[in-house]
Amino acid sequence: MAFEAFSLELMSMAFGFCFFTFTILFSLFSLSILVLRMKPWCNCDVCQTYLTSSWTKDFDNLCDWYTHLLRNSPSGTIHVHVLKNTITANPDNVEHILKTKFDNYPKGKQFSTILGDLLGKGIFNVDGQTWRFQRKLASAELGSVSIRLFAFELVKAETNSRLIPLLSSIAKDQERVLDLQDVFRRFSFDNICKFSFGLDPGCLNLSLPISDFSVAFDEATKLSAQRALASSPLIWKIKRLFNIGSEKKLREAIDMVNELAEEMISQRRKTGFANHKDLLSRFMGSVDDDKYLRDIVVSFLLAGRDTVASGLTSLMWLISQNPKVEDAIRAESDRVMGTSQDLVSFEQMRDMHYLNAAVYESLRLFPPVQFDSKFSLEDDVLPDGTSVKGGTRVTYHPYAMGRIESVWGSDCVEFKPERWLTNGVFVPENPFKYTVFQAGPRICMGKDLALAEMKCVALAVIRKFNIRAVDPDYVPRFSPGLTASLRGGLPVVIKEREVVCL
Ligand code: HEM
Predict the structure, then answer these.
(1) What is the pLDDT of residues 20-75, one digit of tens each?
(2) Which of 74, 313, 352, 353 maximizes the CB count within 10 A of its CB?
């Protein structure tokens, strides 16, 4: 026995030594690949500031530094050579990338590899024919009136039975601080799960532990996004091969997401899907392959979850900072709904132009997707004369665009819903200038659902409560990730309004 233990120890030492040597060699190898891929010798100011992170001396967020650079660029375009990334805030360039030369600017292999384990061949993660097939399939479903009504009813139910009671209970204790971002994340996860799978994870019930599925989904998106931050993709690929560190956690999280998805699909196959209204049941009519079904639905979960939560959080923060906007929303809703009705109807919402303008305006300043990249297939020249090499990254930047005078005028940094109204009527803008939902053939498929959800929730909350940030000098600081999320959340205090009923 002692000999066996000794040989085992020797073997493990030998393995440890090999692994150590391998790690050193591998690090040197990745470093050399990194040197070749990133051109870290670039000496231009932008690249040096990026490489040394010295932008952090003047800016809280990377997106604010990029905004500063794009504002000062005469063409509205900059290059970060070390990342081989052309970043633009010029609407003509954006139209060229997203529409005119759509086929030359796919999402690309780099993106799909990073999210491939989580999203598989879901719409969010594919290009070409596979994308076209799913886009057509999903457009037919999402375009129907019945799904819009179904989605709206889900939002109303979650608002009425969970969100408002939760906020009311918090409001009773005037000292209690609530993280509004956390509440909206739970709310939107419940909602998108019911919409996509017909499953209610019950995350908004704060007294219950947050569901394992939600935790696993969070972990899986966070760790997948972290892959993009690795200095070379080889680093995470090797970790994945050996199933170690963050890649081990990612695999476990994805396994959990898969288990639940498979369970939902097999249950639905057994019980029949014809009478269900959720997306999974609708897609089951056209797709037989269960793995493909899982991929399609998980893409929707990712697309619709944090985006809505992020949009709602910044909307409520901006409104809390702008009591005149808050009053105008309340006055408009009193006119359309009266003062005693709790939740807005779909038809009533159509008459609320000011509310619509406020939501568009908050997304303009705080887009949940702050920037979005494509990869050029072939060499190209953008309308402003910028050359783009084939195989390099091109990024449009909705966050910066919202803060550039040449795009939105001298008052661009102000929260001003009125800019969207002509004689009190909402007038939409050029989608290549307002790129919050992307634009062109790949424009967000959930845009109308997301706007309806945000308006319904915001209205219900604003009519019943006064919400104020705990820190009156709060400045948004973002965490890195696929969707804009506030570092430290949004701590608020809530008071119930005294409303005089008619
Ligand atoms: C305020 C909320 C939302 C914002 C700001 C938003 C924004 C975006 C953006 C920028 C894209 C393009 C991403 C890319 O190609 O890399 C996108 C794509 C997409 N979004 Fe949304 N989204 C929101 C909510 C939703 C919701 C609620 C759903 C589903 C119910 C959804 C479904 C999708 C889908 C399926 C795509 C992929 C479209 C395609 O590739 O053809 N989104 N969204």
Answers:
(1) 555 555 555 555 555 555 555 788 999 999 989 999 999 999 999 999 999 999 99
(2) 313
| Both tokens assigned to 20 | 């150590």
Distance (angstroms) between ligand 1 centre and the Cα of 441 equals 12
Please check whether residue 20 lies inside any domain of the structure: no
User: For residue 23, what pLDDT is reported?
Assistant: 53
Domain with 157 in it: 41-496
Name the phi and psi angles at 465, rounded to 5. -130, 160
Question: What's the CATH number where 169 sits?
Answer: 1.10.630.10
Q: Collect all residues with Cβ–Cβ distance below 8 Å to 159 and sequence separation of at least 6.
A: 187, 343, 456, 457, 460
| Alpha carbon nearest to ligand 1 atom 11, residue | 444
According to the model, what pLDDT value does residue 91 have? 98
CA 444 – ligand 1 centroid, Å = 4
User: Using CA positions, which residue lies closest to atom 7 of ligand 1?
Assistant: 437
Contact 464, 496 (CB under 8 A): yes
CB atoms within 10 A of CB 490: 24
Tokens of 64: 């604010």
Beta bridge partners of 87: 78, 395
Domain assignment present for residue 382? The answer is: yes
Report the residue among 125, 307, 399 best suited for mutation to probe ligand 1: largest number of ligand atoms under 8 A from its CB. 307
Q: Is residue 140 part of a domain?
A: yes
Q: Cβ–Cβ contacts within 10 Å for residue 351, how many? A: 14
Entry pTM: 0.90
Protein residue closest via CA to atom 40 of ligand 1: 124
Q: What is the pLDDT of residue 499?
A: 63
Ligand 1 closest atom vs CA 438? 10
Task: Please report whether residue 29 resides in a domain.
Answer: no
Pocket flag, ligand 1, residue 114 (CB < 6 Å): no
Number of compact structural domains in the chain? 1
Burial 74-95 (b: 16+ CB within 10 A, else e): ebbbbbbbbbbbbbbbbbbbbb
